[in-house]
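yo, AhpC/TSA family protein is done. seq:
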Amino acid sequence: MNIRYLTLVALLFAQTVSGIAQTKSAGYKLTGTVKGIADGEVELTSYDSRTRTNKKLNTAKVKNGKFTMTGKLNTPELMGLSFTPGNWGTRVFLENVPVNISIDTAGSTHYDYTKYGDKKGATLQQVKVSGSVSHADYEDYENKTKGSKKRDEVFSRQLDYIRPFIAKKPSSVAGVYMLSTHYMFNSDMPLNDLEQLMAKFTGEAKKTLYFNNLQKEIAERRAVLPGNFAEDFTLLQRDSTKFTLSSTRGKYVMIDFWASWCKPCREAIPHWKEVYAKYKGKGFEIVSVTNDSRWNDWVKAMDVEKMPWIQTIDEFPVKNMPARVVSKYKHGTIPLYVLLDKEGKILVKSGNEEDIDHKLAELLGN
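structure:
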C-alpha cells in the first residue's frame, strides 16, 4: 500500500481524535444581549436547594447591552443570572455548548424585600434561550404544567409530565431537576414513588447535585420510618433549662411538633389534653416542640393554652433553614405527631390525630 496514503490516513485519524477530545473538553459559552441594560455586570450563580445557598461561579461585563461568559461545568445545571445595576434576575440551563440568551427588561416583575433584611430587584419575564437542550426541555415542562392554582392538581400535572419524560430520557439532567423541584414542594410524596422514579435515572443525570440531594432525602426519610430509633435531642424549656428526649425512656412518648402561628396545631390542643389526662397514669408522656422562631410568641401561646406536659422550643442554627429537630422528620408541614415506644423507637409518624389515638388505644386500652 502507498506509504503516502497510509500517512495521510493516520494524519486524518489523529485530527479526528483530537477534534473529538476538544469537543469533549469544551465548556460552555454563554452569549447574551440585554435590552434595557446598556452597561453593567452579570453574575452567574449555582443554587443548592438542600442548603438554600448560592455560589458565585462567574462574572462578565455588559457592554452596549451585550456580554459573553465562558467556563466549564461538571454537568448541565440550571443557573441564576443577575444583572447590575438594578438586580435584574433570570435563570438559564447551561450545558458545555454554545448557548445564546436574549433578554428584554420591559415587563419585568419588581420586588422589594428590604423590610425583611433582604434586597430589592426584578425578575426578568422576556427571556429567550437557544442552544441548550436542557433549557428547552425544562421550559416545555414549565409551560405544560402551569395553569392550575390547586396544589394537588399542580402536583398531579407535574408527575404526569415527569414520569414519561424520565422513561424517554433517563440520562437527562433536566429530568432529575424537574423531579427535585417537584419534591421540594411536595415532600410528603410517597417514598416508594420517589425511589421508583430515582431508579430510572442513568448516566449524566446520576452525577448531578440534584440526584445526590434526592438520594440524601431518601436516606433521611428511611431513617425516621416506624421501627427505627428516634434521634435523641436536647432543647430548651420555658425556664431555659435543658430537656433531653432520652430522659423519657420507659414511657410511651408523643412528640408534638406545633407552633403558635399554626391554627390546626392549636385547634388540636383540647384533644391532646383529654388524651394526656386519660393516659398519663399509664406511662404516657407528651413532649411539645414548637416551631416558633420568636421566644415571646411561644410564651404567649403557652400562657393561653396552658398545656400540662413538657414544652420545648426548636432551634434555627442555620439562617434561612428549617428548625433543627422537626426537619429531621421530613414531614414538610405541622402539626406532626411522632409516637415512640418505651425504648425510643418510632411507632407512628403522622399529621393525623386519629393515627395516634388508635395506636394508644391498642397499647394502653380505651
